[in-house]
Amino acid sequence: MAAAAATTTTFLPPVPTPRPRLAATVRRPPPIFTGAANDVPPPEDEDSSDDYDGDAAAPRRSARKDRRRAVRIAWEKLVRWSRSWRRRNRSDVLETTRKVVVLGGGSFGTAMAAHVAAKKSDLEVSMLLRDDLVCRSINNSHINCKYLPEHRLPENIVATTSAADALAGADFCFHAVPVQFSSSFLEGISTHVDPKLPFISLSKGLELNTLRTMSKIIP
């Protein structure tokens, strides 16, 4: 008798039908601003999924548009006011400056005095020095015989050893005294310094015995 051949049936699980995917809401990153203040773009509302909800979201969309319109109008008013304020208050510091004083007659102080004096011919640049020889050299020959002797200085630079004369009527003060001598130097002229006089420090470093910076040394 012929043997009956065994038949093996393999059952495979049904393949699931992929469901349609809803359109994803794309959220744009906030704009990166790198320009001037007057070029700042107005704020924008983020995209919302309400746009896909049909007529039920109509009131929300309308309210959102109203808010966006109000924000844009307020932003445009702010930009116009900012531009108008800038035009009214625009001024050149150099135009209103009549006198500056440079404390110290070293190479850095001399170079800064020459640079500032060259910017405006009628600007009085007063250098407060301790060396009478250098003072006479600057006033008579317009040359710092000790530092930068090969460079002729502008004629609107005046050197003096009197703190009262140098600081009288000054609009700005450039401090070019070395850090290690700044404390004693400033103490010696403190009675002639206007408390409201702006100081611009050209010196850098730490005072060795106190570890103070120039922002702590200058009163």
UniProtKB/TrEMBL annotation:
GO terms for molecular function: glycerol-3-phosphate dehydrogenase (NAD+) activity; NAD binding. It holds the Pfam family NAD_Gly3P_dh_N. Residues 1-12 have a biased composition (Low complexity). Residues 99-218 form the Glycerol-3-phosphate dehydrogenase NAD-dependent N-terminal domain. Residues 42-54 have a biased composition (Acidic residues). It catalyses: sn-glycerol 3-phosphate + NAD(+) = dihydroxyacetone phosphate + NADH + H(+). Residues 1-66 are annotated as: Disordered. One of its GO terms (cellular component) is cytosol. This is Glycerol-3-phosphate dehydrogenase NAD-dependent N-terminal domain-containing protein. The lineage of its organism: Eukaryota, Viridiplantae, Streptophyta, Embryophyta, Tracheophyta.
